[in-house]
Specification:
Elements lengths: L14 E5 L2 H13 L4 E6 L7 H14 L3 E7 L9 H8 L3 E5 L18 H10 L9 E4 L3 E5 L21 E5 L4 H11 L4 H7 L11 E3 L3 H17 L3 E5 L7 H12 L3 E7 L7 H6 L2 H6 L3 E5 L8 E4 L2 E5 L5 H6 L3 E5 L2 H16 L1 E4 L1 H5 L3 H10 L7
Parallel strand pairs: 2-3, 3-4, 9-10, 10-11
Antiparallel strand pairs: 1-7, 2-5, 5-6, 6-7, 8-14, 9-12, 11-15, 12-13, 13-14
């Protein structure tokens, strides 16, 4: 059985710029798009043309008009209205756009689908793949700069004073790093892979052992990455700090967290008090009592929606698009990156401590005092955890 090394050698020259909000993130992204010379490959679950989406679109048009190859990939469920006047304007400027797995009934999106099959076969394929989404949020510029994190192209990630909703997110800008695994993952999502080739790739992970970029582009890779995460949690001695937007752990993860807390490891989990999916906090709260009894500390972020995905295990730090739920584990395409520099790790620690100042700790007493209907619905939702 192939395994992932516990520590992977990576160049010390990797440059990382961290973001904890959309305003700064989009400012850097726009700057890099404006100075792109060769190529821009943008991949996002949601592309909302309102506000920042229009600015990104204008920057992409200008880049295309000066000769930069621009490709834009959105998800069919995350961006179900893609294909209107805004899209056509992008395409008229020379930008190529595609949709990853359009919803089967979204016939107007079929022409932009990455799937090239006869109509009858295509609708069967899309029905079978309706639960398989591209949840990655990446941008690769000139094959030298990459953005990875939890931010879609959406105004909700902007600070409120900038016209956004102030969502709390985390992302990183990478330079001086081998981006070939990320580029290969984009190419695979951009182009339809025939079933015969899919069979050959089932046991071929798309990550490289010496790369900090973690991609779950195959079933085999998903299993290896998850086993690696569970093993790291089990071996943690000082801390397990988790920030996650959609926390629906399976039994394996739940047990590892409880075991670690019982051994005296500092286990803290920061979750949203309110979510863009109303029912998600209720489902997450179904696990609170078991975790709290094992001495896991749970905090709920209060000011606005917490959308970040960060894991800190002793001195091993990871951020990206993956949630700790069944969707990320079984269905969605995700990408995460292991942070390398001491400065970036210190920043993530500072972000975590600052977030706790704006969070309320959950105790057994107030956990059990939640409204009965929320507790009941939370438990009922767990029967649907395969889809959430």
């Amino acid at each position: 059985m192939q395994t992932i090394p516990e520590s992977s050698p990576t160049p010390t020259t990797v440059e990382e710029t961290l973001f904890d909000n959309g305003t700064d993130f989009f400012s850097y992204l726009l700057h890099d798009i404006q100075y792109a010379k060769i190529s821009i490959d943008l991949e996002t679950y949601t592309f909302n043309k309102h506000h920042i989406g229009t600015k990104i679109g204008e920057a992409l048009i200008e880049a295309s008009q000066r000769g930069v190859r621009v490709r834009l990939l959105v998800d069919g469920a995350g961006t179900p209205r893609w294909g209107g006047r805004f899209t056509k304007r992008l395409e008229k400027s020379g930008i190529k756009t595609r949709i990853f797995h359009p919803l089967p009934w979204g016939l107007w999106q079929w022409s932009r689908s990455m799937v090239r099959l006869p109509s009858v076969i295509k609708i069967i394929y899309l029905l079978l793949k309706i639960n398989t989404r591209n949840h990655r949020k990446t941008c690769i510029i000139d094959k030298k700069i990459a953005y990875i994190g939890s931010l879609n192209i959406d105004y909700c990630h902007l600070k409120q004073e900038q016209g956004g909703k102030g969502w709390r997110d985390t992302a990183v800008r990478l330079q001086k790093i081998d981006l070939r695994p990320l580029q290969q993952a984009f190419e695979a999502a951009w182009s339809y892979v025939p079933f015969s080739k899919q069979l050959k790739r089932i046991f071929h992970p798309t990550y490289q052992h010496n790369s900090p970029i973690r991609l779950n582009s195959s079933h085999h890779a998903r299993r290896l990455l998850y086993k690696n995460l569970l093993r790291r949690i089990a071996k943690s001695k000082q801390r397990i700090w988790i920030i996650n937007a959609y926390f629906i752990p399976n039994n394996f993860l739940l047990k590892k967290l409880k075991d670690a807390a019982r051994k005296g490891v500092d286990v803290r989990i920061l979750l949203p008090y309110k979510s863009d999916h109303l029912i998600m906090p209720w489902a997450s709260a179904s696990f609170y009592e078991k975790l709290l009894k094992a001495k896991v500390r749970i905090f709920e972020y209060q000011p606005n929606i917490l959308h970040a995905k960060v894991i800190m295990l002793d001195n091993w730090f990871m951020l990206g698009s993956s949630n700790l739920n069944h969707r990320s584990l079984l269905h969605d395409l995700e990408v995460d990156v292991v942070i390398q520099s001491p400065q970036s790790k210190q920043q993530l620690e500072e972000h975590f401590h600052r977030d706790l100042e704006y969070a309320k700790e959950v105790y057994l007493s107030n956990c059990q005092a939640r409204p009965w209907y929320q507790r009941l619905l939370g438990y009922l939702l767990l029967y649907m955890k395969y889809w959430i």
